[in-house]
Design goal:
A hairpin with a 5-residue loop joins strand 2 and strand 3. About 5% of the residues have low confidence. This protein starts with a helix and ends with a strand. The relative contact order is 0.15. It is about 10% helix and about 35% strand. By secondary structure, the protein is mainly beta. The chain is globular. The protein has one domain: Neuraminidase (6 Propeller).
């Protein structure tokens, strides 16, 4: 009799465990889609507006992230998983890189690069490294650690470096978590320094969960940023955002999202009071990363001055989204109210599989738009021809 009771007890417990597991699997299926990640990487069939075409400018990189044009008018790339900065010269101007030339090796998990006043600055998880090419041979021959005390733990470890028109240097530092109280005030913030030497550290803006992309608007000199919203609030909440960042501004995380959505875990009545609003809301879980203002002259007039944003793509959504480049149109110097698709095709919407994941967008010296794909290891070149 005791054995039967024991067996019934064990059987009931096993059934309860199965039910709980089933509930967890069902919940996860409503929140997460791994199809884009499990798909094999490959060259995307990029779809563009009439007159535009996309070609592979370079391949064979491993996790290419942000890019920048150097003083030699060549494209430089933060080749993150290879721990290096590379140049992609196109000396014959045929729209394909002639080679992958290593400018600096053993850089670590480099995410962003920018050239400023004779030197390259690279953002790595712990801070910023500066590189010089003093003999002009295209290879760095001197380096210096400018900042090495930024927090490196947690979910968001990319560091984006940008310079303001007044010469100050800013670095974005993402949160350590999805939503929480941070011990380090530099988390979920943009940190500012007096200049390129990294002195006088203070906070430029706070409440930005993960402002991966930074760019300075050429016309007005304002700092703009993409921001990745929190996860696990459903397929469509909260929206991803773009901000024109004000100094000393507070943008809400972790208590408020998009200046109007009180966080269900960390929020409280009045949490959105005095939170600065975004310029534009975008589809939740699109993961906006790089952004750039088009300041070239090779695109039609209607595209000049517009803001281009790379969507890395979702994981925390039952139906995959993102995996494309969008455009925020400007008219008379003012941004529109929503973004529009510009380059799509990395995501197969029928199968939910993604051939690649756009990361960075940069205007080349030739006026083309370059897009990095850290899944496939490609750099795409988007050009316009009448």
């Amino acid at each position: 009799m005791k054995n039967r009771k024991w067996l019934r007890w064990v059987g009931g417990l096993a059934l309860l465990v199965l039910l709980l597991c089933g509930a967890v699997v069902w919940w996860a299926s409503q929140q997460v889609s791994l199809r884009p990640f499990l798909a094999e990487a490959g060259v995307a069939d990029v779809e563009l507006p009439p007159g535009f075409s996309a070609t592979v400018f370079a391949e064979g990189l491993d996790g290419p992230r942000f890019m920048a044009v150097g003083p030699d008018n060549q494209l430089y790339v933060a080749d993150r998983r290879n721990g290096r900065i590379v140049a992609l010269p196109d000396q014959n101007n045929d729209g394909q890189a002639d080679e992958i030339r290593v400018f600096a090796a053993n850089v670590g998990a480099v995410h962003s690069i920018i050239f400023h006043e004779g030197a390259w600055y690279a953002g790595i998880p712990s801070g910023v490294i500066r590189f010089w090419d003093e003999d002009g041979d295209g290879v760095s021959d001197r380096r210096e650690t400018v900042i090495d005390n930024l927090p490196t733990s947690g979910s968001h470890t990319t560091r984006t470096v940008e310079f303001l028109p007044d010469g100050r240097m800013v670095v974005s530092v993402g949160s350590s978590c999805n939503v929480c109280d941070e011990d380090d005030p530099r988390r979920a913030a943009i940190v500012v320094y007096d200049g390129p030497n990294g002195g006088g550290e203070t906070l430029f803006a706070t409440g930005l969960r993960n402002a991966v992309g930074l760019d300075v608007e050429p016309a007005g000199g304002a700092l703009w940023a993409t921001n990745n919203g929190r996860d696990l609030m459903g397929d469509d909440t909260p929206p991803e955002t773009i901000f024109e960042v004000e100094e000393n501004g507070f943008y809400g995380w972790p208590v408020c999202h998009s200046a109007e959505i009180v966080d269900p875990d960390m929020g409280f009545p009045g949490a959105c009071d005095n939170v600065l609003p975004p310029v534009v809301d975008m589809q939740a879980h699109s993961a906006p990363l790089g952004l750039t203002f088009y300041d070239g002259d090779a695109f039609p007039a209607e595209y000049q001055g517009d803001l281009f944003i790379a969507f890395h793509g979702s994981w925390n959504r039952s139906i995959p989204t993102g995996y494309k480049v969008v455009r925020l149109p400007f008219e008379d110097g003012q941004p529109g109210s929503e973004v529009v698709d510009f380059a799509t095709g990395w995501l197969n919407e029928e199968s939910g599989e993604a051939a690649g994941r756009p990361v960075g967008v940069t205007v080349g010296a030739d006026g083309a738009l370059y897009v990095s794909d850290d899944k496939g290891g490609y750099i795409y070149r988007i050009a316009y021809q009448e």
